[in-house]
Structures are given as C-alpha cells and as structure tokens.
Amino acid sequence: MRRQVLYSGSRRTPGAGSSATRPATGTPAPESGHAAATARSPRFGRVRALGTRHAGLLRFLAGAACAALIGGAYLWSQPRPRVLGQKDIDAAVLHTLENKALPSRAAKAADIVRPSLVRVRGFGEAPPLKGKQKAKSKRQDRRSGKGKPGDSQAKGKDAPKDMEELSVGSGVVIVDNGVILTNLHVVAGAKRVTVTFYDGSESDADLVSIHPENDLAVIKAQKIPDDLPAATLGSAGHLKPGDEVVAVGFPFGIGPSVSSGVVSGLNREFRSPEGDRVLTQLIQFDAAANPGSSGGPLVTMQGDVVGIVTAILNPTESRTFIGIGFAVTIAAAGRAVGVHPF
C-alpha cells in the first residue's frame, strides 16, 4: 500500500523508493519551537524542570517580592520627619512655660524634705484645780457626762489623759530608724513626748540626748512608718547672703507650713530672752518662723537641710516673727549630737 505524503510541498528524490521521503531542498525537516529550543540548549530543559518542581516556592517568593515593593513604595510616599533645630526647641520650651504653670523652686524643695518632717509635742501633768475652777469643771462634767475634773485642763488635740500640752514644735528625721533632731526648748520639762509623721501616724518618743549649748535635743520614735526617709543634710559652708532658703514646720501647731526667704547673714549670735544662753554660728534668715517652727529644717533649693530653726528675734514682748530668724547649722548640730552630718 502506498504511504501518504505528509508534506504537500515535498518531492521524492529520483531513484528513491517509496519507503522514504525527503524535502526537495535536501535540508532536514523543520522541528517545533519547544523541541528545537530543548535540542539547542539542554540547560533550558533542566531549568524548566526545576521550575516545575518548585512552582509553589517560586510563587511565594514572587508574592513576597511584590509585597516588599508595595510596602517600600508606601513608606517612600510618607512624609519624612523634619529635623528639629535649636529654634524649634526654644519655641517648644517657650510655649510650655507660657501655657503650663511649673512648681516653684521653693515648692520642690519643700516636697523633698516634707516626708522627713515631724510635729513634736511635749506634755506635762495638769495642775490641780482650785476653788471656783474645780466647781466649774464639775458642772461641765455633769452636763457632758465625760471625763474627770482633771481632763478639762488638757490642752491640745488628743492630749494624753491627765496631761496638758506644754509645747509644740517641729523636728526632722536624720536617721531612718526614727532618730529625730529638734530643739531642746520644745521638749524641756515634758513628761511625755509624741511625734506625728508625714503620713499622719503618731508615736511616743524617747529622749536620747540634750545639747544646751546649741539648744538641740535628739529623740527617737518608738514606732515608725514603713520606708521612713531621712532628710539629706547639707553644709552651710556654701551659703551666701541672698541665697534662697525654705523653712518648713508647724508654727502654732499648724502645718506642715512652708515659708520661703533668703539667707540674711552668717555666723550670727543670739541670746535667749531669759539671758541664760548665747547661741553662736547661727544662720540668719527672713523666711517666716513663729513659735512651733522651732526644730524644723531650714532647706536650700536643692532640698538639703542646712540648719535647724531655733529662734526668732523680736525686741518687743511679742514672740511673733518680724523678719529675723536664726537656725543652728547642721555642722554644729552634727558635732553636738555625735552624728556626722554629711
């Protein structure tokens, strides 16, 4: 049977049998594009096979590359932060100062020392009532139904039974185990001494030592609050007249009260109104101080205690402040109580 010719344009070679056909031009028959490329480049076939085996990985990498390109384009399109200059910083600071009230230096100094401040009260036995006072007290007790005749003589809030408040003053914690520095005249003659801490807790205190030459006394609280801080003590050697200071205490039992002023002078002397004692090497200051401020700290703007408020000068019989106060230096206090102040 005769084979059908596959290519219409092909011609048989003369003398050739019917079993083979060749192109008329004598050249090899053209092959398909994929087969030709595979024949010409064996590497292409291997690459194609590799791509077929790892098609999932290649799609993942292509997606990641597209996502990275999109993210980079987005970030590139965002506005870049402007570099701040000195003018911008100055303008921001000025805006803050104009629109926000900052605490004063005196307020910050008082805040530093306030946790170490205590109110000190001395109590003594109430004197016996006589005559009309005793009869009046009995009538008052009958009406109120409370207490005994001697109780009406107790002065001051929460005074111990059958005792009256003899004195009220201030003190400052100098050791965190409850050691407190105050004035001698605050606790002199007291049968019982109590202290009130910054958190409102109250405790009896024992008298540790007295130092009349500096009008100082050291007491120690029997119970103290948790994490009781001791004040930071500083040297008065760096003080100069005109430096700002703050006096913190309980004038007339009111407080804690804060008053600010300046150092008026150094190495001053003061003789007590009774004339029995002369205090030396004192700091003179004009921050308001009154009875009850005695024993409180005199503080610098850095919060360092440089003195213990001791006395006020008033030529009149009044014991109120007229602008001259005195404080014992912490250096003198440290030597007196046997504690290194710095």
Helices and strands in order:
Blueprint: H1 33-40, H2 42-53, H3 55-77, H4 86-99, H5 105-113, E1 117-125, H6 131-144, E2 163-175, E3 179-183, H7 184-187, E4 192-196, E5 202-211, E6 216-221, E7 244-249, E8 257-271, E9 278-285, E10 297-300, E11 305-312, E12 325-329, H8 330-337
Antiparallel strand pairs: 1-2, 1-4, 2-3, 3-6, 4-5, 5-6, 7-8, 7-10, 8-9, 9-12, 10-11, 11-12
Describe the structure.
This protein is of the alpha+beta class and 342 residues long. The protein folds into 3 domains: 33-74, no CATH class; 114-221, Trypsin-like serine proteases (Thrombin, subunit H); 236-337, Trypsin-like serine proteases (Thrombin, subunit H). Helix content is 27%, strand content 27%. It has helices at residues 33-40, 42-53, 55-77, 86-99, 105-113, 131-144, 184-187, 330-337; strands spanning 117-125, 163-175, 179-183, 192-196, 202-211, 216-221, 244-249, 257-271, 278-285, 297-300, 305-312, 325-329. The strands form 2 sheets. Strands 1-2-3-6-5-4 form a 6-stranded antiparallel barrel. A 6-stranded antiparallel barrel has the order 7-8-9-12-11-10. Helix 1 (33-40) crosses helix 2. 28% of the residues are buried.
Radius of gyration: 48 Å
Number of domains: 3
CATH class of the largest domain, named Mainly Beta
Q: Distance between termini?
A: 127 Å
Low-confidence stretches: 7-11, 13-26, 136-155
Q: Short summary of the structure?
A:
Helices cover 27% and strands 27% of the residues. It is α+β, with helices and mostly antiparallel strands and 342 residues long.
